[in-house]
Design goal:
The protein is α/β, with parallel strands linked by helices and 236 residues long. It holds the Pfam family GerE.
Length: 236
Amino acid sequence: MRILICEDSVLLREGLARLLADAGHEVVAQLPDATALEAAIAAHDPDLAVLDVRMPPTRTDEGILAAIGIRARGDRPRVLVLSQYVEERYAADLIASGPAGFGYLLKDRVADVADFLQAVRQVAEGGTVLDPEVVSQLLTRRRRDGRMERLTPRERQVLALMAEGAANQAIAGRLFISEGSVEKHISAVFQKLELEPEAGNRRVLAVLAHLDAPEASGAHPHHPAPGAPRTDGGIR
């Protein structure tokens, strides 16, 4: 896999490059900021871009704005945001920009190299990986969607796990129910959120509705322990 890294911390940038190279990937470019990002993408045609959120010169939102720009142009390269921060103003826009090939992980919560490399592979293959903390912070900020009140607690649990990027099999395992039950709950969610088949990727639209609603007390499943990002499936 051809990977571009855009990260202002030289130690982290070099560390990521070595880690990815040792895993058999080709790091085609290492950038300290986003100023040469577009030129590097054009020159090297990477499969995946790993981007920090806050980089020089302002150290505010250069990286995440670059990620939005990349996503707006198409499905190459895939984008993995790796940051210390949840940039709430833009995270939902990134999720909405398309269902394929996107991840948002928090640096301080990536505690296992194997999990990180799995997330890299999953995003590059078109999956979606969201740290539960990213989902949680968005939930606390979004306005209430009246449609969400129609969902049962179990349907909310299923939808919350979908928002973390869990596939149906993983949801079934987390909730100790059958995959058939998961499919029925998802169908009910689509119906109650008024998402018809012609609406496009209903799974992504349902997750966006979930992110637009505040967290309901007792409606969400237990999350993994801190430091364990979800990497068990993609939003379909």
